[in-house]
């Protein structure tokens, strides 16, 4: 297996790597490999494909849509829209946000 030497690693970057390694119960080498894998092996998702997956999940959850009035009322009251009284018991609306 190939080995890599990292030269001139800034102290603050090394400390962050060390802190992350401790938090994930890994060696510094293990954390460095995991970090490189996350950075270099990311699969880019097509936005349309991602949107289709989100819509499919929403259909599975069968949540009532939020309308703009419910969202505004939730913002003004400081409560999440899902807890706002006007949302509970409401029939699905074609005017909701989907």
From TrEMBL:
One Pfam short name: FitA-like_RHH
Start-end of Basic residues biased regions: 81-91
Domain (Antitoxin FitA-like ribbon-helix-helix): residue spans on this chain: 2-40
Protein name: Antitoxin FitA-like ribbon-helix-helix domain-containing protein
Region ranges (Disordered): 74-98
Signal peptide start-end: none
GO-annotated biological processes: regulation of DNA-templated transcription
